[in-house]
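Sharing a chain and its predicted structure for anyone who wants a worked example. Both blocks are below, sequence first, tokens second.
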Amino acid sequence: MNTIGHLFRLTSFGESHGAAIGGIIDGCPAGLSIDTEAVQQELNRRRPGQSDLTTPRDEKDRVEFLSGLFEGTTTGTPIAFIVRNENQHSKDYSNIKDLFRPSHADFTYYAKYGIRDYRGGGRTSARETIARVVAGAVAKQLLAPLGITIQAFTSQVGPISLEKTYKDYDLSLTESNAVRCPDPTVAEQMSKLIREVKAAGDTIGGVITGVATGVPVGWGEPVFDKLHAQLGAAILSINACKGFEYGLGFDVNRRGSEVNDAFFADDHKVQTRSNHSGGIQGGISNGQDIYFRAAFKPVATILREQPTIDKDLNPVSVKAEGRHDPCVLPRAVPIVEAMTAIVLADAWLMAKAYSPVS
């Protein structure tokens, strides 16, 4: 499926080396004033060529809104947009036309459809995430008046990781460095490692942490549309994402007496003394910060000779050509934020639809 969401819905379209990447946002309420420059800024955070830690491709990635806005305000009708592809080097992929790259979707797409666009991976390319970032930027502006903020940051690259919780860092420093880590010292260590890996023609993975603050109590639809299940599905749909955990996550080898979140009332507002639940209980937001971690694998395209097979199952070797990211994490941070915003915008509209009769 190419659509995410129940009420706030995004359908994306386009291929890496086609004319454009685009999307249609349906269900966005009327009357929302859209700051298109803020949308563009989110795209700028995702685009290639930002630093020596990313691919040097020169894609400007300018968004063009085609419908759904009148004088900068949403009309309640579908919001259509495109971002034109401008800096393709399709010839860089001619050597893989008839073979399957290791750990890519080449084989699985060909097995499923009997045809594939080998230029940059076609529909499987991370360039598709452009549509998600645009929709996420709109969703952020929908959520902002509710006091909801969404912040993601790189918390681990290879063996180098932040040792404290997100509350112990000044998250406003995330954008102060190319790797998007809120600790400048650790960020420099991460950057150095990425450069070393890049120089060796290799790639490296890591972890992105996401935090949503200001989410009120009551968002999420049990049983199968639990809020954490929707977040997990959205984040795991991002290219190269291999794992998702929220709250306590996999740190479960403890006793209940250590991790239960006890309730108390503070100025007539329900609080918890800890937040091992990650802001979600029973699949419904409990008013505390929602936080999670997403694991991203090393980029599958490496500039080294590798064994593989061709379409006729003959053993061959392949060495990637062209311009590729040595680490996906810096550019994935705004994508993680975007997917979180899309899920929360949808959850808000669902909560309004299911609010009790007064």
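Comments welcome. The domain at 3-353 is CATH 3.60.150.10 (Chorismate synthase, AroC fold).
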